């Protein structure tokens, strides 16, 4: 569904909630409590409306999350049906309300680079993501996650210039809809925390921040090159972080994540004044999805 048709249909007016005063509340420092959301990939390993091998339908996800003790969920663009209709959005929102869960972040990416050096492609990316800002507002999300600059093809400073322009333009649109725009460290330049921090400073919009991923630190592929210290990366990004992706895969017999020191991560994140949401994203296969989600949630609660 084209964005023009989406807006013309009146969905945003019928489905969206008033967000007056929301942005000013968003930018106030938040120490506690940490709102823990569940990301669909934790329970649904299919995309674009395909049936999950374990039978989880995306519209059943809000109830499933609530049954595990989550009061918030994230949405992912690639888990929503295609073509996406106003009826789908109304159904999802009704399911969330019936389950008693709030919507945290809409995760988007892969439909253009806001930092593309080609002005035509960059403009197209902005248009593509404006549509998903509308979707985020219709689902009553607090923020939309964007992936950009995840391939290194041009100079560091040149990429920063183009990405600043693209993020700024999308941010203005998102601000009008009451949506925070969060850029994730998601490979490429964004996995260089100093580059991403500078992007935040250069954009300098009140509704722009970072979604800090615990494990996405690959700067370059073939050969792989990673930012060497993910904890230092989160520390550098902490002033801009408004949500985190709490990744998990394997656990020790004591219940600790085997690759990520959650105690150390959460201690650093206590210095993130705008942090509001921690999204549980379990992608392991050795234990059940429900068990992995619950173990990750327990670590967040234990160390926060």
Question: What would the keywords be for this entry?
Answer:
two-stranded antiparallel ribbon, 11 helices, alpha/beta, 10 strands, TIM Barrel, disordered N terminus, single chain, 304 residues, 16% strand, 39% helix
Low-confidence stretches: 1-30
The tally of beta strands, per DSSP, is: 10
> How far apart, in Å, are the first and last alpha carbons?
41 Å
- Biggest sheet, open or closed, and with what strands and sense? 8 strands, parallel, barrel
Helix content: 25-40%
The rough form would be described as globular
Number of domains: 1
Query: What is the CATH superfamily classification?
Result: Divalent-metal-dependent TIM barrel enzymes
Order of helices and strands: HHHEHEHEHEHEHEEEHEHEH
What is the CATH topology assignment? TIM Barrel
């Amino acid at each position: 569904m084209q964005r023009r048709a989406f807006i013309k249909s009146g969905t945003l007016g019928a489905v969206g909630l008033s967000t007056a005063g929301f942005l000013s509340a968003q930018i106030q420092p938040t120490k506690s409590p940490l709102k823990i959301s569940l990301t669909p990939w934790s329970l649904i390993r299919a995309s674009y409306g395909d049936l999950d091998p374990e039978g989880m339908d995306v519209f059943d996800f809000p109830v499933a999350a609530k049954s595990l003790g989550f009061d918030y969920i994230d949405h992912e663009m690639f888990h929503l049906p295609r073509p996406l209709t106003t009826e789908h959005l109304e159904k999802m929102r009704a399911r969330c309300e019936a389950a008693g869960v709030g919507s945290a972040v809409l995760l988007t990416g892969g439909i253009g680079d806001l930092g593309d050096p080609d002005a035509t492609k960059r403009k197209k990316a902005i248009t593509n993501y404006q549509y998903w800002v509308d979707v985020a507002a219709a689902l009553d999300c607090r923020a939309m996650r964007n992936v950009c600059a995840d391939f290194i093809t041009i100079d560091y400073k040149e990429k920063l210039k183009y990405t600043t322009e693209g993020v700024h333009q999308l941010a203005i649109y998102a601000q009008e809809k009451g949506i925070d725009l969060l850029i994730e460290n998601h490979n490429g330049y964004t996995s260089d925390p100093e580059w991403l921090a500078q992007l935040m400073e250069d954009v300098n919009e009140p509704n722009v921040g970072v979604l800090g991923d615990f494990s996405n630190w690959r700067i370059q592929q073939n050969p792989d090159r990673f930012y060497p210290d993910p904890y230092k990366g989160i520390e550098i990004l902490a002033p801009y972080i408004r949500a985190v992706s709490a990744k998990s895969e394997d656990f020790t017999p004591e219940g600790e994540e085997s690759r990520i020191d959650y105690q150390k991560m959460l201690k650093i994140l206590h210095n993130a004044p705008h942090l509001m949401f921690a999204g549980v994203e379990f992608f392991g296969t050795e234990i059940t999805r429900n068990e992995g989600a619950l173990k990750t949630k327990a670590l967040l609660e234990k160390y926060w």
